[in-house]
Design a protein that fits this description.
InterPro entries: Thiolase, Thiolase-like, Thiolase_C_2. By secondary structure, the chain is α/β, with parallel strands linked by helices. The protein has a nine-stranded mixed β-sheet, sandwiched between helices. Helix 1 crosses helix 2.
Length: about 375
């Protein structure tokens, strides 16, 4: 008998084509492409889908337009948009709907053409009368403030930040789907063009087109899928602020709360996790999340990642696909991070596969360290 209650399981995952899309491609095209691939991965069809969860910054009515495009009429739908953590939030909502019997097969999807169109079209910023007069270059300026404060309080260095980028690149070199194909050194990061002190261009994520999809269903239905189901063991959500000027402490995020909720739901602790997917729009974020999720003490994140500790062969594998820094970052990254955790548990990651991965955690971050959502996945052996 299982020791942990399984509310739902992931049975299919897939990306769309990633990188630079052909002219005329829309975000909905990429969502649909990923959705069809994820359903095929699961051994399901569009006719099976009765729950639809969509976030995009390029369409006002994501669930409506994707449902129309795919020709489906879901009983449950959700367009929650809280930035890059939206998809972990969708997963939490899908669990509730499946457990309540409101739907049985939930499709979570995302697509973006952020590289092909200007940033103002792909993700137009909200006007803030308190910050806009100062003309900050957001979001990078906000993350630079967090990085600078962390350096001031805890002695974190630019070399520590660079270690995050180098680890991501080393993982990406093992991933055929990753955008970046050239080695990267700490010195390369330090000598790169400065964008917002202390963050250079190599401390910042890629800007690419792409999307992804995930199929979630009941445990009973999952047993009839094409591949080994990956169980959702815990989810947690937290909101802290909207604008960086209103973040109470630039060195501490509400990932502390989302992580605690996910671990409590899973009946687990950080030591139980073998692989992490941490939102890495900038090199400071994995450092903050390692601390706030409980993998190292507050202030020790920079030293924790040193010496290749989170790269291939390190003590804790982080962002094994190459992350948003070297694999793909199409505007919002959270869904792609969850896809990687599922594949690691399935043992499908080839040269970057982490042996004995039965529990993996994916953490999403939205806006300017504003929304934090955590998801914990496990194999049957983790139960």
């Amino acid at each position: 008998m299982a020791k942990r209650h399984v509310r739902a399981s992931v049975v299919g995952v897939a990306e769309s084509d990633l990188g630079v899309s052909p002219p005329g491609t829309t975000p909905i095209d990429l969502m649909a492409q990923a959705s069809i691939r994820a359903l095929d991965d699961a051994g399901f069809t569009l006719a099976d889908v009765d729950g639809l969860f969509v976030a995009t910054a390029q369409a006002r009515f994501g669930p409506m337009v994707l449902a129309e495009y795919l020709g489906i009429a879901p009983k449950v739908f959700d367009g929650t948009q809280v930035g890059g953590s939206s998809f972990m939030s969708h997963l939490a909502h899908a669990l509730l709907a499946i457990e309540a019997g409101q739907c049985e097969v939930a499709l979570i999807a995302y697509g973006s053409t952020q590289r092909s169109v200007s940033r103002s079209q792909a993700s137009p910023p909200d006007f803030n009368p308190y910050e806009a007069p100062f003309k900050p270059m957001l979001p990078v300026a906000a993350y630079a403030m967090a990085a600078g404060r962390h350096m001031h309080e805890f002695g974190t260095t630019r070399e520590h930040l660079a270690e995050v980028a180098v680890a991501a690149r080393n993982w990406a070199l093992l991933n055929p789907m990753a955008w970046e194909k050239e080695p990267l050194s700490v010195q390369d990061v330090l000598s790169a063009r400065m964008v917002a002190d202390p963050l250079s261009v190599r401390d910042c994520c890629l800007v690419l087109d792409g999307g992804g999809a995930m199929v979630v269903t009941s445990r009973a239905r999952a047993a009839r899928g094409r591949k080994m189901p990956v169980h959702v063991l815990g989810v947690g959500q937290a909101l802290g602020h909207a604008t960086i000027a209103n973040m109470p402490d630039l060195t501490t995020t509400v990932a502390r709360e989302s992580g605690a909720r996910a671990f409590a739901m899973a009946g687990m602790r950080p030591a139980d996790v073998q692989v992490l997917s941490l939102y890495d729009a900038f090199t400071i974020t994995p450092i903050l999340f390692l601390e706030d999720l409980g993998f190292c003490p507050k202030g020790e994140g920079g030293r924790f990642v040193s010496g290749g500790a989170i790269g291939p062969g390190g003590k804790l594998p982080v962002n094994t696909n190459g992350g948003g820094l070297s694999y793909c970052h199409p505007g919002m990254y959270g869904l792609l991070g969850m896809i990687e955790t599922v594949r690691q548990i399935r043992g499908e990651c080839g040269a970057r596969q982490v042996r004995g991965c039965n529990v993996a955690l994916a953490h999403g971050n939205g806006a300017v360290l504003s929304s934090q959502c955590t998801a914990i996945f496990g194999s049957e052996d983790a139960l």
